[in-house]
Design goal:
Keywords: ATP-binding, Cell inner membrane, Cell membrane, Coiled coil, Kinase, Membrane, Nucleotide-binding, Phosphoprotein, Transferase, Transmembrane, Transmembrane helix, Two-component regulatory system. The chain is α+β, with helices and mostly antiparallel strands. It folds into 7 domains: about 260 residues, PAS domain (Beta-Lactamase, 2-Layer Sandwich), CATH 3.30.450.20; about 100 residues, Beta-Lactamase (2-Layer Sandwich), CATH 3.30.450; about 80 residues; about 160 residues, 2-Layer Sandwich (Heat Shock Protein 90); about 100 residues, 3-Layer(aba) Sandwich (Rossmann fold), CATH 3.40.50.2300; about 130 residues, Rossmann fold; about 110 residues, HPT domain (Four Helix Bundle (Hemerythrin (Met), subunit A)). About 45% of the residues lie in helices and about 20% in strands. It contains 33 helices and 40 strands. Strands 3, 4, 5, 6, 7, 10 and 11 form a 7-stranded antiparallel sheet that branches. α25 links the parallel β38 and β39. α13 packs parallel to α18. The chain is elongated, with a radius of gyration of 47 Å. The N terminus is likely disordered.
Length: about 1150
């Protein structure tokens, strides 16, 4: 039942009409004055809000950047090296707590600094300053995209800088922030500009004594760009620093005025006057442009003075335009409102009828409330009960006995408390949150009620009271309770399962560590007896054995070598899994690395009788910086697999480079026409100890480790490896590795075939395609067989047979491969090995340029005067894979009247000896290089002694030529069956002394003698001694061959400058191991050129470095640089003179 108190009186229509007329007149009279004032106030507030919103966003950006820097400083402050340095500073450079030198702590702190710079690109520089002297103790900075640690010699004193002196006054763990300015080094502004903001933090030792200042420089440009981007296009942003100087301005010329033009600041450029209590009117003194501006300082972070202001501007013309628009809108609405009011006035006559309708509505509303399930209680402004519905009595028993106008005390305490606590808010038009209570009443079960208060509006939407809505939520509350219990049980179960998973993972990790440790240990232990087996095999080979025993020895050696390879693979795998595999970062020649691997597999490819192609035409760089050994290991694995699984067709090794941004990508691909891999087995390839199938393992052998190691090595070098394969059609494997462009050197290949036509005779399309590509690379034009050409290239006997009859008509005939080596019946025939190598191919046309594509040649520094007839009439076979070495040997021996034949490796030597045996040629001696791809010198010697090179050469004198100076090397050569031993670089006197000891002399026939070379007037000896190089000694050593002299000079110019730079760097960094390496290398070159002064000073440096006397090395560095520059200048001048003489001739 709804009970209500009827209040109010009937209002007559005439009274309402009069009131309406008076109201209309009042509105019309006062509207103009009211709205004019409010229009400007509202517009000012609107523009302020727009500017304030942008300012708050900008302020937050500024503060977030500062907060990040503050966290960086607090992080660095708590790192161990800070206190370690402090303790070491107080204890004569040694940390007494950890017995660690000061330099070690500084190095560790430098590593932390470098890691932060790598991780956060917003950091430019991090330093630790000595608080007593201002000297930089550690400094790491970003230069040209690289993070470097500044050398001690370049550390600066910052005691005169403001941020240093201010930081000395700071309490502990208090940060000082500088204004944004342009970074300076040694008093000069860094170009390009580096907007920088510095933050400093004093550091105290364990005795609470100030000992250092941490300083970080941040890149303020990014922060400024973010701040500016917050403003819409209609606004402009100015960032001010100390003394209102410009940090950022839309006009580029005004930016960073404190550093670039101190006379210009905000006040000198703009006239500022108040617009209201929030905004200023700003006028540009030069352009007279006016703006509304909000000027606020950045604030909100406790880092001292932030010394920055943000100025947000809106053109005053925009403000005026908005004001006019708002006036037009307002007065138009006023006119509309007047018309509407007139219409309303016309409708007031229906008001009486509306009152009747209202009574009807009230009756309807009463019925609705009585029928509602929720309880509703009405209260007036004084919180006296005015009404309630029937449902309310079911919630509150006392309500039936309560009179209207009663206060809420008759309700249960929680309900009345809720009304008293929230009624005032509702009467003010505010919303309140509903509340759930548990109600206990006598004679009833406990119930949950939801209480909510809403305003009661009277006429003109004036709040006349409040209404209490009561809803029974007992069922809902019980359901939520059950849900919470279920969630709690589920969370407990998840926690238990998670703990079980963590325990299982820890056990698996521990098992993996034990496995890796076991593999590493047992692999190392297996190497010791295996080395004993291999050594014993070498000793047994020295004894007389039968053919069957020889076969068994070869089987044992093959098995032992295979086992050693497997152990090495297992060791690599265990290192990778244990995270102990280190990747070097040293300069290397990709041409040389890939060519070395290719040549080492050429014998195997010949045995398989497959086409073997090495394509390096896509390499654009002669030097990259990385781990050459690991690159070589990956290429070797892929190439050996391709050759092993290819019975017919071809194997192609290709290498290319591609420049992307600042990275050079090296791509090496191996393509074959072998057995291929079924698609169903592709997922097995890169797994350890996994092959395609057991049949594959049985037929081809192997452990399944190679590709797994390749993948992990490539990924360790930040690259990736991929493959494509189809069963019975072949496979293609390739990997790509990134290298820094800043450390790479480009190849410069001449177009020496420009204007020349070349015809190619090949057996297969794949060979022809590569040859055409090779010809085009060097500027030549390929022509078919029907047209005449300048040059002819043939790759096999069958191919050569097509052109053999007309070979003399070509200017040059290039024969590729060993099977064509016997063809020498024409002066225009040139032989190169297969597969075709870039350096060897280039040497056919430009020997000097070919040298740049090959490893440097090392020769002797001692000169000797020879008669020119020491071995006249003798004939020698020189076996060496390096073309330059072969050329030098030819110059030395032919200069003494000998005849020289060549072989490029051990297998080639065996083949040629068989050919020479048929021709009746007899060699006085064989010079054997020990380290060659394919069959090396030791294997070749044993094969010759066993008669594999022909019975007549079984006892021929074999002289070892090796660059190894290790102890026991000579004994190894002699045990392999060689007769004598000479080291590289070859000392001519030693060489002929060895020949004399072996009773190898000139023949008695005078027809083979040559005339001694005239080395010039000895009266010039005093002048020659004053030169940095004794060229007469060098040319004497080369038997007067000036062509070889030019080649030696070219090698020196090509290679020595980079090695000299490496030597200087290693000495300055006190790196004695590197100093030994580079001084020894350069000393060898000095000896080759008879540069005695340079040789002596480098020899001293090498000796000091071997004894780890870094100070003595540094004291001799200046002398080495002077002597080197003298030699370099002399060589350059002589090369120019020799080229001019050659051109004239």
């Amino acid at each position: 039942m709804l009970r209500s108190q009827n209040q109010g009186e009937s209002v007559s229509s005439s009274n309402i009409a009069k009131s309406a007329i008076v109201l209309l007149l009042a509105v019309l009279l006062g509207a103009i004055l009211y709205f004019e004032n409010n229009i400007q106030d509202d517009l000012n507030d609107s523009f302020y809000q727009r500017l304030e919103q942008v300012h708050l966003a900008q302020n937050n950006i500024y503060l977030s950047e500062i907060d990040a820097s503050r966290r960086f400083l607090y992080f660095l402050l708590d790192t161990p090296p800070i206190q370690g340095i402090a303790r070491a500073e107080k204890n004569n450079g040694i940390d007494p707590q950890e017995n660690t030198p000061l330099q070690v702590w500084r190095a560790r702190l430098s590593t932390i600094f470098r890691s932060m710079l790598y991780s956060y690109d917003g950091l430019i520089q991090i330093r630790l300053l000595d608080a007593h002297t201002g000297l930089e103790l550690v400094r790491v900075e970003r230069q040209l995209g690289k993070v470097i640690t500044v050398l001690d010699s370049k550390l600066q004193n910052k005691s005169q800088y403001d941020y240093f002196t201010q930081s000395l006054q700071l309490p502990e763990r208090t940060i000082y922030s500088t204004s944004i300015n342009l970074n300076k080094e040694r008093g000069q502004i860094v170009v390009p500009f580096q907007p920088t903001k510095r933050f400093t933090l004093p550091t105290y030792d364990i005795d609470n004594d100030l000992f250092g200042i941490l300083v970080i420089n941040t890149n303020a440009e990014k922060m400024i760009n973010k701040i500016v981007s917050q403003a819409p296009n209609t606004q402009k942003v100015i960032v001010l620093g100390e003394s209102d100087s410009f940090i950022y301005h839309p006009d580029f010329a005004l930016r960073y005025s404190r550093d670039l033009n101190p006379d210009i600041d905000f006040r000198s450029r703009y006239q500022v006057q108040p617009w209201n209590n929030k905004l200023q009117l700003v006028e540009d003194k030069e352009t007279n442009a006016r703006f509304l501006a909000l000027i606020n300082e950045v604030e909100g972070v406790n880092v001292g003075s932030l010394k920055a202001k943000l100025v947000n501007l809106i053109s005053f013309s925009i403000y005026q335009q908005s004001l006019n628009e708002k006036r037009l809108t307002t007065y138009s609405l006023l006119a509309v409102a007047s018309g509407v009011f007139a219409l309303i006035f016309f409708a007031f006559w229906q008001y009486t009828r509306s009152l009747q309708a209202l009574d009807s509505t009230r009756a309807e509303f009463k019925a609705i409330l009585d029928g509602a399930s929720d309880g509703v209680l009405g209260f007036d402004k004084t919180l006296r009960l005015t009404s309630f519905n029937e449902s309310a009595t079911s919630f509150f028993n006392k309500l039936n006995n309560t009179k209207l106008r009663s206060e809420p005390q008759f309700l249960p305490d929680p309900v009345s408390a809720f009304i008293y606590a929230n009624a005032s808010k509702v009467l003010e038009g505010k919303e309140v949150e509903s509340r759930s209570i548990k109600l206990t009443q006598s004679g009833q079960d406990n119930s949950w009620l939801s209480l909510n208060l809403s305003p009661i509006y009277g006429g003109k939407q004036v709040i006349q009271g409040v209404a209490l809505f009561v809803e029974d939520i007992t069922a809902q509350q019980e359901a939520e309770t059950q849900l919470l219990l279920a969630n709690e049980r589920l969370e407990n179960e998840v926690a238990e399962r998670t703990k079980e998973l963590v325990d299982a993972r820890d056990k698996a990790d521990k098992a993996s560590e034990v496995k890796s440790a076991f593999i590493s240990t047992i692999s190392h232990e297996m190497r010791t007896p295996l080395n004993g087996i291999l050594g014993s095999l070498n000793l047994v080979r020295k004894e007389p054995v039968t053919k069957h025993q020889q076969k068994y020895l070869e089987m044992m050696e093959t098995s032992s070598t295979t086992l050693l390879s497997l152990i090495n693979d297992v060791l690599d795998l265990s290192k990778i899994e244990a995270g102990k595999l280190e990747i070097d970062n040293e300069p290397f020649n990709p041409l040389s690395v890939i060519e070395h691997v290719a040549l080492s597999m050429s014998t195997k490819a010949k045995e398989q009788e497959i086409i073997y192609i090495v394509d390096q035409l896509g390499l654009e760089y002669i030097e990259l910086c990385g781990d050459a050994a690991r690159v070589k290991q990956v290429v070797y694995n892929l190439l050996s697999n391709a050759i092993k699984f290819t019975k017919e067709g071809y194997v192609k090794l290709s290498a290319t480079t591609e420049l992307t941004d600042d990275t050079v990508w090296l791509k090496v691909a191996v393509e074959d026409t072998g057995v291929g891999i079924d698609k169903a087995n592709h997922n097995k390839l890169f797994q350890s100890f996994s092959q395609e199938s057991t049949n594959t393992a049985n037929e081809f052998g192997g452990t399944g480790l190679g590709l797994s190691i390749c993948k992990q090595l490539v990924e360790k070098m930040l690259g990736h490896i991929r493959f494509e394969s189809e069963k019975h059609k072949g496979s293609a494997f390739w990997f790509e590795l990134p290298f820094a462009k800043s450390q790479a050197k480009a190849i410069n290949l001449p177009s020496f075939l420009a204007g020349k036509t070349v015809s190619v005779f090949c057996d297969t399309t794949v060979e022809l395609d590569y040859m055409i590509k090779l010809i085009t690379k060097f500027g030549g034009q390929h022509v078919d067989h029907a047209r005449p050409s300048d040059i002819c290239i043939a790759t096999s006997k069958q191919a050569f047979s097509q052109v053999e009859q007309v070979a003399s008509e070509f200017k040059k005939v290039i024969l590729v491969g060993d099977e064509l080596q016997h063809i020498n019946d024409s002066d225009n025939i040139v032989h190169i090995s297969a597969p075709v190598r870039l350096g060897e191919f280039v040497s056919v046309f430009d020997l000097n340029k070919a040298v740049t594509l090959q490893p440097s040649l090392k020769k002797s520094g001692e000169a000797v005067t020879l008669t020119g007839n020491l071995v006249a009439g003798c004939e020698f076979l020189v076996v060496d894979d390096n073309q330059i070495n072969r050329i030098v040997a030819k110059g030395i021996l032919e200069g003494q009247g000998a005849k020289v034949q060549f072989a490029v490796d051990g297998q080639d030597a065996i083949n040629k000896l068989l050919l020479f045996e048929d021709q009746g040629v007899n060699f006085d001696a064989i010079f054997m290089d020990c380290n060659m791809p394919g069959m090396d010198g030791y294997q070749a010697t044993r094969a010759i002694r066993q008669g594999q090179g022909g019975e007549c050469f079984c006892n021929t004198t074999i002289i070892a030529m090796t660059a190894s100076a290790l102890a026991g090397e000579k004994e190894r050569c002699l045990s392999a069956g060689m007769d004598e031993f000479v080291t590289k670089p070859v000392v001519i006197e030693q060489l002929f002394s060895v020949l004399e000891s072996l009773n190898i002399y000139a023949k008695e026939d005078d027809s083979v003698l040559i005339q001694p070379f005239d080395f010039g007037n000895q009266d010039d000896e005093e002048v020659r001694q004053q030169l940095p190089i004794s060229e007469s000694e060098v040319i004497a050593r080369l038997s007067g061959n000036y062509e070889l002299l030019q080649q030696l000079y070219a090698l020196f110019l090509q290679d020595s400058e980079s090695k000299m730079q490496q030597l200087i760097l290693s000495i300055k960094n006190s790196n004695c191991d590197a100093t030994v390496k580079y001084s020894h290398y350069l000393k060898g070159q000095a000896g080759d050129l008879a540069a005695q002064k340079l040789f002596d000073v480098l020899d001293n440096i090498e000796t000091y470095a071997r004894n780890h006397q870094a100070g003595q090395c540094k004291s001799h560095l200046a002398a080495a640089q002077i002597e080197y520059e003298n030699v370099l200048k002399f060589v350059k001048n002589r090369v120019a003179e020799l080229e001019q003489q050659h051109a004239k001739s």
